[in-house]
Design brief:
The complex is a heterodimer of chains A (about 500) and B (about 150). By secondary structure, chain A is mainly α. Chain A is about 70% helix and about 5% strand. The longest helix of chain A is centred in the C-terminal third of the chain and has 43 residues. The termini of chain A are close together. The chains are: A mainly alpha (about 500), B alpha/beta (about 150). At the A-B interface, α1 and α3 of A face β4 and α3 of B.
Chain lengths: ~500, ~150
Amino acid sequence: MKLVAVTSCPTGIAHTYMAAEALEKAAEAAGHEIAVETQGAGGFSPLGADVIAAAGAVIFAADVEVREKARFAGKPTITTSVKSAIHEAPALIIEAVAAAAAPVAAAAGGPPEEPTAAVGPALASKDYGSSTGAKIRGWLMTGVSYMIPFVAAGGILIAISFMLAQIAWGETGVVAVTKVPLADLVANFSVGSLQDWAALIFLVGAGAFGFLVPVLAGFIAFGIADRPGIAPGIVGGYLAVQIGSGFLGGIVAGLLAGFLALWISRWKVPSAIRSVMPVVVIPLVATLITGALMIVVLGRPLKWLFDSLTSWLNGMSGSSAILLGVILGLMMAFDMGGPVNKVAYGFAVAGLASVGTSTDATQLVIMAAVMAAGMTPPLGLALATNLRKSLFSEAEQENGKAAWVLGASFITEGAIPFAAGDPFRVIPALMAGSAVTGGLVMAFGNTLRAPHGGIWVLPLIGNPFTYLLAIAVGTAITAALVILLKQAGRTKEELAVELIDNDAAAI
Amino acid sequence: MSDLITATMVDLDLPAGDKAAVTAHLADLLVAAGRVTDRETFLADVRAREQLMPTGLEGGIGIPHARSSAVTEPTVAFGRSTDGVDFGASDGPARLVFLIAAPAEGDGDHLAVLAALARRLVHESFREALLNADAPDQVVELFRREVVVK
């Protein structure tokens, strides 16, 4: 049996290593293999992702927080103190081997720790065999696991505010609720006013949403470089939003910040400076460089992309309506709040402003298509997590429940945690579903006069029945494709894991 | 880098006393050897660590330790007590006391020797040899031979 362990104590110079030695001794005596990561005062060298993936169980012998714990998520886990590892290592090895043999029971009965970091079995076993791929996925999932609470809190609050706004203002409440300035609420909030409550809840939700990309980027960098990565990552993520690059820009910022921080932490510096490296030098230098690169290197090409996409879309006005719907659908789902999505959405909203009082203008159909295409990504993923739980991490399954509400409210961001964790499988599936929905809405000719609101503005939609049908079809397509792509990418990996297990059994 | 331990940092017959007294006694050896620049700062750092959780371990050993700005190099002072000193281990007092001093700054390479020492402490044979040592030189030789950075 292959095992892994992390040992960590407050000072990091004695017990950490005694526990490691004791575990290695006990494992060897019992005929098992163990790889121990000592998180000591002088830092630590992380276990390889392949080593973690091959391990049947993990032992945390730690009196302080285990660093980068998300790497081990989903493994049967034994958690104990360093001292007990020193004194009772043989018993711990027996316990770990037993836990590995009955992983389900152990995972369920284990200590309910850090649900935010529990990103599920996918993390350790995914992309098994190509350790770089597994590492990148591990970092992305770390970022995603910290972002999910913001998505859920912000998204559900915004959905609630839309619902209340429709009651408080009437038909166009979803528009009115987004226009109430924060200063007005501060000055005149009235407990008896439903409008005020709706606006308040919207502003809080929007506040939470402002952190999506910064937190994603910050904790991707944290996954790479540990604590010194957080500041450059969060700042880089914030700037990614400012330059309009969305969550894909945030991923870039997070990876950039993490590698910079890691690189700087390996500089050989005089001992006088060494102690201020993690708190001052690394964040200072890495933040400056990350931020500068985001603004200077990424900013201009993005602006160019934005401008050329916009003029290209405007030039499309004469072509087939259905084709336009398909293209807008593809764009809406590509980066969910990023530049491509914004071009499509901006195109629709700009059209809305030009129609005046007409009730059947093409611009109204385009708005309807864009909204529907923005609803299917979270809905499709919610459906997929319902149909095939095993393909998703625990955190993703939880996020799937919130995604129903978010998708229904046209909060496309509900899909970001899934897309950020596994972009190459998830994004194509989202685009396919949204493209079909966009095309269908154009074909059905549904109209919409509000720029957002999801099902809360259903009364404003021309022919709501076919509209819901278009959304349902796109949702089903996205769900089916996500499941298909995730399974296809899996079979080979699972095979590899099985082979390793057989090898271990043979030894 | 200097040796982890020298003969002047070994006391095979510790004077009787509680853990504070024994720790202070071993700290004096480190001060005399120039490994600790400020006795009080160092002892305060050791006490702070000891307060988090007693450092006594089963098998009759106590390992008071600290990272401290008063330490110049990774060093250990070793003392052997006939009557034993209570370091809070569940199976009784410690006969072998290791006062481990780590500088406040220093990366993994620098502290590796202390990690190697900690790993040796787990081995019964090492503890046995220390219990049976006749002279400080023998102890120093034992550390030199057994505590190897891999």
